[in-house]
């Protein structure tokens, strides 16, 4: 059945080369855990991507109930966590996934670093990877405020004070992030929501596309 | 036995197992999220409680408007919403409570609102009219009779529930 649908479309649009180009590439022996078990260290990049996909999916579903507003944010989170079926699970996926992304990304970075896989000609990919790391930290920082509980509020106050400690432009940066020179409140929450849900994910998708294009173009670095 | 016909190649075997296991994992991931999104559909309506609206002794054969408030719970937002009803006793002495919401486009109807058509409910928005028992007058915009409130009388007090289309109440 599925095969027939595929053939029908393929006959007209010739889609096979499209996905073959993406999916069909040889895994070198030194990267294949079937040959050397230690090759499992190569899985962390893929796992980072996998957890990122879960984050995007669970985040999309969470916004069906979440409201970025100082009066409703906490109550909507409480409601979706306690009264909506599987609310605890979906929010749990997003909560634990956030930490897991950082862990996986860190292990991936360690592997690339200790194998020297960042060396010429892959310096650009290392730089893009560092940018992805920064975007992920930004996602973690902005997402932390959204439940609008005491922990979120004071963590954000600390974060904003760190930003404020920047020489010369510190105060401006803080106001830009918080939306108000003194108050961490209504405008901070909407801003953080917009950054968390639109701006940073857009940047992340772009950077990940560049990351993957480069690794396909250059191939995985050779054995040690 | 035709063993050769049913031989599964290594490639096929791996294809089936990987698709199966992968599908199982994907389903395990997606199922909670989908059920989470479907929750409002599956939750079902909360049984609305009846609200005290009027004293039976105040109800006459002439429709009279009674205003009352119902508690509404919209997820985490709880509020009291104003409602009103046209209440009267019919020829048999039974109490009838009609919703004032016009079945055309939802404006509020008035008893005797139009001097040219006495003893009818009148909607000022598009001149919709209803008989005293709520039946829509043919030739005017509404195509259904006014909704009727579920009601009960206890200790001389009238309690109203949900407004339902005629035939269901």
Which structural traits does this protein have?
heterodimer, A: 224 residues, mainly alpha, Cytochrome Bc1 Complex, Chain C, B: 169 residues, alpha+beta, Rieske Iron-sulfur Protein, 2 domains, three-stranded antiparallel β-sheet, cell membrane (chain A), iron (chain A)
Description:
Chain B: One of its GO terms (cellular component) is membrane. Chain B: Residues 87-160 form the Rieske domain. Chain B: This is Menaquinol:cytochrome c reductase iron-sulfur subunit. Chain B: It holds the Pfam family Rieske. Chain B: One of its GO terms (molecular function) is metal ion binding. The complex is a heterodimer of chains A (224) and B (169). By secondary structure, chain A is mostly helical. Chain A has one domain (1-218): Cytochrome Bc1 Complex, Chain C. Chain A has nine helices and no strands. Chain A has helices at residues 2-13, 16-23, 43-62, 73-82, 87-114, 123-145, 150-164, 170-178, 186-218. Chain A is globular and about 55 Å long. Chain B is of the alpha+beta class and 169 residues long. Chain B has two domains: 1-44; 51-164, Rieske [2Fe-2S] iron-sulphur domain (Rieske Iron-sulfur Protein, 3-layer Sandwich). Helices cover 20% and strands 33% of the residues of chain B. In chain B, the strands form three sheets. Chain B has a three-stranded antiparallel β-sheet with strand order 1-9-8, with no helix packed on it. Chain B starts with 9 loop residues before the first helix and ends in a 5-residue tail after the last strand. The model of chain B has no long low-confidence stretch (mean pLDDT 88).
